[in-house]
Amino acid sequence: MRPRLVLHLVLLLALTGCGSLGGTSEALPTVVLQGGNASTLAPVGSGGARVTASGVVLPARQATLAFTLGGSVRSVQAEVGDPVRAGQVLAELENTVLAAQAETARRALRELTSSAAVAAAEQALATAQDALKDSEYRRTVQQEGYRASPETIRAAEAKLLLAEEEVDRNKARYDQASGDADKAQALVNLTAAQQRRDGALRELNWFRGKPSEVDQALLNAEVAIAQAALQEAEWYLAAVQGQAVPADASGVQLTRLQNARDQLAAAEAALAGSRLTAPFDGTLAALEIDLGDYVQPGVPAAIVADLSRLRVETTDLSELDVTEVPIGAICTVSIEALGDQAEGHVIRLALLPTALGGDVVYAATLELDSIPEGLRAGMSAEVSCEAP
Question: Minimal CA–CA distance to 69: which of 302, 270, 278, 277?
């Protein structure tokens, strides 16, 4: 790149001299030389200019993979250069215990969401609906002036009538009894019957009485409890059926179900941490482990790259020139190693800069319209883009 920069400088100096001979001066683009590394903005005839910069060929996508757990490598299921599919397991640690824990958690959740569990949840919901109706009815009756419903009062009246008849029968037996023993037994029976009659009478009188503030508060609380129980039953049935429930949903059964799901998620995450899995379709570009190796968590173990689509990223586009290269700018990319060129366009500009020999530079990413034969990731490139 330096010979081109020197040539541009010489041309600019010559043009400047010619302009002064004519007595007029024409503004020319400034040439920026920053240690021979920064991009340049060079004139192109009478129209616009072109920004030039160095670049490197990169895969469209690349991922560095690492185990999230430590352990011994049990299997390696791919080799460098192999094509891989998204989700494919590339290597695996010793994870027998983790697999068993995941299966146990899976069975527990399966039991809580089985057909029998769904049927039980539906039954619990129906029971909660009936309980709410009953409590609301009792409160409505009480608000109308009685402590009990007409049906309850009629039942209490019938109970009192039967109790009075029982008292009459036992009174007749007592009057007819002869002998001390028979008289004593008849008295015991009569007393018991009278106590039952008195209890039935008190119950009827209470039912017919006006409700107090305490009575009303108790029934309001009973309705509120029934409403909450119904809501929890609805949430639980929805959760068992796999439907979404609010984040603040509550209930003992629901908590138990959610705990089972959390335990399964944790077990599966631990199992996944013992495997290297390809995140997308591509090529296994690097593999740093072998069978039997002990690996530490977080240490890079493999690289998967999408080599079917290659891009070019600039390495020295200066802060003065980045404003001259908008998204969509058309560029020519020269690959020195191939002696070939390709057209491309800018698809992304870095939002944050990097430092290069004390200079501020921004990375521009180019999508190539065609891939030259033999192009490989890592090759250097020269990029020349049209400035607006």
Answer: 270
* Helix axes of 213-240 and 252-272: crossing angle, nearest 10 degrees: 30
Q: What is the pLDDT of residues 287-301, one digit of tens each?
A: 999 999 999 999 999
Shared domain for 46 and 174, answered yes or no, is: no
Q: Is 364 exposed, middle or buried (0-12, 13-18, 19+ CB in 10 A)?
A: buried
**pLDDT score at 153:** 85
Q: For the whole model, what pTM was predicted?
A: 0.60
Q: Which pLDDT score, from 0 to 100, does residue 16 have?
A: 37
Q: Residue 370 class from Cβ within 10 Å (0-12 exposed, 13-18 middle, 19+ buried)?
A: exposed
The CA distance from 37 to 182, in Å, is 126
**Residue 40 has what pLDDT?**
56
* CATH at residue 379: 2.40.30.170
Taking a C-beta distance cutoff of 8 angstroms, is the pair 313, 288 a contact?
A: no
Instruction: Give whole-number Cα distances, 303 to 79, 169, 179, 234, 284, in Å.
Output: 11, 98, 109, 48, 6
Q: Which residues of the chain have pLDDT under 70?
A: 1-48, 145, 147
Which is nearest to 8 in space by CA: 48, 46, 47, 52?
52
Residues 245 and 120 placed together within one structural domain of the fold: yes
Residues 357, 215 within the same domain: no
Pairing of strands 89-93, 380-387: unpaired
Sheet holding 275-277, edge to edge: 275-277, 89-93, 71-76, 294-295
Q: Is 183 helix (H, G, I), strand (E, B) or coil?
A: helix
Q: What is the dihedral of CA 34, 37, 39, 42, to 10 degrees?
A: 80
Give φ, ψ of 25 to 5 degrees. -125, 135
Looking at residue 246, what is its pLDDT? 95
Residues 6 or more apart in contact with residue 278 via CB below 8 angstroms = 84, 85, 86, 87, 88, 90, 284, 304
Domain that residue 186 falls in? 111-265
- Of 265, 300, 335, the position where a domain reaches its end is 265
Overall domain count for the chain:
2
**Which residue in 337, 359, 386 sits closest to 57, CA to CA?**
337
Distance in angstroms (rounded) separating the CA atoms of residues 145 and 138: 11
